[in-house]
Write a structure and sequence with these properties.
The protein contains eight helices and ten strands. It is an alpha/beta fold. The radius of gyration is 18 Å and the shape is globular. It has one domain (2-298): Rossmann fold (3-Layer(aba) Sandwich).
Length: 299
Amino acid sequence: MLSQDITLTAADGYPLAATLHTPDQAVLDRASNRPQYIVIGCATAVPRGFYKRFCEHAASLGLHAIVADYRGIGDSKQGDLKGFKMDYADWSVLDLGAVVQYAHERGEVYLVGHSLGGHAIGQLPEPSWIKAAYFCGSGAGWAGWMPLAERIKVWFLWNVLGPIATTILGYQPMSKFGIGEDIPLGVYRDWKRWCSFPRYFFDDPAADAKAIAAKFDRVRMPIAAAVSTDDLWAPPKSRDAFFSGFRNARVERIDLSPAQLGTKKIGHMGYYRKEVGATLWPQIMSWLGQNGLRSLQAK
């Protein structure tokens, strides 16, 4: 397979660093005879390199796989984050939207998302371009759904460390807390606000959140929403609360466990790690295969 770094351009002109994984033997869609693309919807503060092995797995099955760094993250970061102005929704509408458009112009699109990827799908300019979606670790983000110890940690992050750090630095230094890369102030602001509601932005009465929630009525493709029982940030109750906002989509809720996947731990980040992927990734591809995807795995 060929892995190639490319640059995409978001609708507002912002350049995005992306990697396209091209299969040696592309399997074409049965109906359209076009190539098939797996678009990765990255989690908050997670650079695209984290998903490299999953993309390689997809390419080994005859699928194109593409993943991009959101603006301000990884190779899409331009200069200092202090003073960098953006809204959290920009990652979904503009950045992931650009990746989906790139894939749609070249083939049939399937979305595989991690955490934020599930939050993003309804915000995409054209969610109808996606034939089916599989999400891992997407939940409401509300601390009340988390175990008590994690709830206390998250409260401290939002209400003590976060406000102090952002006031001093002008951005949220997530890397200092061991939680991915640093994020722009606008992302931190919106994320914190939405995580204060049991159903995330679906419960937020603000006008901008209501507008986002209304867009999810356009989401009609088959969806799998998988979470692990040891995912402290997105346990099953959190997943169920968030996906209750998908009023027109058929959402299959899948509960995973470390024992099922032959590992000691999955957590919030393990879905895309190699040791978990050995068992989980074929399951993801099998589910997508039941919902239109054609791959070498099914042959």
